[in-house]
Specification:
Blueprint (H helix, E strand, L loop, with lengths): L2 E2 L5 E2 L1 H14 L6 E9 L9 E9 L8 E4 L2 E5 L1 H7 L3 E5 L2 E4 L1
Parallel strand pairs: 2-7, 3-6
Antiparallel strand pairs: 1-2, 3-4, 5-6, 7-8
Length: 101
């Protein structure tokens, strides 16, 4: 089942399940931190056309409320550049990695 965030990013059930599992496995000791989803697509250079997405923990006190989105039951920070790059795209899983369609 697909879900659309208010910023236009779409997620699959497989991505939400992965996020929930990642959150559960890594949240210990991360009090006061929030998951941040980063997405980068290279426009030029050696890596032109390549992209990657990653999850990491960041201090929640640096985030603005409108930049925090609930994916499944997990609150996640998406920067403006990540929101722009992923708008109308779908976050899914492929071969154990985050995949953008």
């Amino acid at each position: 089942m697909l879900e659309r965030l208010r910023c236009g990013v779409i997620t699959t059930g497989a991505f939400r399940a992965y996020l929930a599992q990642w959150h559960e496995e890594t949240e210990g000791g991360n009090f006061g931190l929030i998951p941040q989803l980063d997405y980068v697509r290279f426009a030029s250079g050696e890596r032109a056309g390549q992209a990657y997405a990653s999850l990491l923990w960041q201090p929640i006190n640096k985030m603005k409320p409108h930049e925090i989105f609930e994916i499944g039951r997990i609150k996640v920070y998406l920067s403006k550049s990540t929101r722009t790059a992923l708008k109308e795209h779908c976050l899914d899983m492929k071969d154990g990695a985050i995949f953008v369609k």
